[in-house]
Design a protein that fits this description.
Elements lengths: L1 E2 L3 E6 L6 H14 L3 E7 L4 H10 L4 E3 L1 H4 L1 H14 L18 E6 L17 H8 L3 E6 L7 H10 L10 E7 L3 H14 L3 E6 L9 E2 L2 E2 L8 H15 L2 H9 L4 E2 L12 E5 L5 E5 L8 E6 L4 E3 L2 H9 L2 E6 L13 E4 L1 E2 L5 H6 L1 H12 L4 E4 L1 H5 L3 E3 L5 E3 L7 E4 L6 E7 L12 E6 L2 E2 L7 E4 L6 E4 L1 E2 L3 E4 L2 E2 L5 H18 L7
Parallel strand pairs: 2-5, 2-6, 3-4, 3-5, 6-7, 7-8, 14-16, 14-17, 17-19, 19-29, 20-22
Antiparallel strand pairs: 1-11, 9-10, 12-13, 15-18, 20-21, 22-25, 23-24, 23-26, 24-30, 26-27, 28-29
Length: about 500
Amino acid sequence: MKMDIPRILITAGKSGTGKTMVTCGILEVLKRKGFQITAYKCGPDYIDPMFHREVLGIPGYNLDIFLCGRRMMRELLFCHSISGKGISEKKISGAEQGADHRISVIEGVMGYYDGLGGISYKASTYDVADATDTPSVMVVNCKGASVSLIPYIQGFLKYQDEKAENSHIQGVILNRISPAMYERLKALVENETSVRVYGYVPDIKDFRFESRYLGLKMPEEVEEIKEKLKKLGELLEESLDIDGLVKLAGSAPPLQTDGEGICSRRKSSVGKDSKAGKDEVISIREWTQDSLRIGVAMDEAFCFIYQDNLNILEGMGAEIIPFSPLHDAELPDRLDGIIFYGGYPELHAKKLSENQSMRKQIKQAVSEGMPCIAECGGFMFLMESIRDERGTAYPMCGVFGGESFPTSSLRRFGYVTLRGGKVFGRKDAGDILAHEFHYCDSERCGESFVAKKPLSDREWKCMISTDTILAGYPHIHYAGSPKVAEAFLDACSDYRRKKQGKVRVR
């Protein structure tokens, strides 16, 4: 299937250049103009899509070549961009009726060519742009530079190929520059390079987002976030060539896919790119006539959730039941399985610990055989305790032994391949593609899998895996590792049958 999908990618030469700020400002302007928008983030990052959601009021999605493979990543982009699930519900009226106001906006990660292991462009923002043939616009920090920006831009254009167009960079946005200097630099850049300048951003300190660890603080932690985003949109509507950016997005070639779209709520097939580069399609069957009820922890402490993971589980026959370990006293009724994704439980350790009824119910449910997935922050929550930066230990669920404690630096960071283990008792899970990012650690991280770093000899043991539990620090995207989701729901089906006194015939 081939379809015109207007799309544009916002990138930069390095982190901290203003990608998220510019992307959020563009989204705000497009929303105000009545566009149907789908927003994406390159790579495994959870927080930037939250900022996109804060602007649009809809889920943000990830495009990750390592976790999902090139084919499946294109499938995700295609599916979300046309399905309407990631599209603003704002109605277009008057003269705008009948016009094509659909647009997909992709925010890059790190520097444009920064990829695997810090030594390759593979799985970089450039790799995403190349795999999806998406025109890219680079945000350039002009603070303390003028003419030197020309060779800087030229270097990005010709790094991979002397033909500048093969970089997919077709424009730049000049950041942290005065209006007067902008007019002179704009003419210089357009005369000396092959790219167009799509406007500028003045040096505005009020719109810089604070960081925690190596990522941004949560949107809800930014004071008056909605008002700031509104003012940012008003500013960029005046200083950026929004019409030009929309036209550039519309120039993107048709996007082709051979799948049916894994984002739909109907039963479907899910695929991944195998190590050999061949497409492996895994047929998903319906386990039960009624949807399996899967409780998913969702609140301020547990918010690192790939929307695609929820969509895929729903497509396989699950009903997602949100609950809050922070605010709810009890688990939802009639659960067939439970999931704790990542977040910042260490920032809410006292309140989580005080919710004794919830902790007790969780431990009892998992101990009695309810299938459970726990990733990173969720894994920490199921330990005996979480120790905060002041040294105070707060009791947690006690499903696993050990304690989570803060570290002074990242111990394990980046993409990994999980090998050698079983998933919910299945032997056919194969390699699992995952990602780690945490400033907390434990002396009991599990030994069911070996985590292998790409382009490196480094490896370590991790994960706790039984017939009913998969837990550890790595994060998993089901679009690239669908057998994890399949095995989990299979275990949930067995659990339901056991509760109902039914014997499963395999």
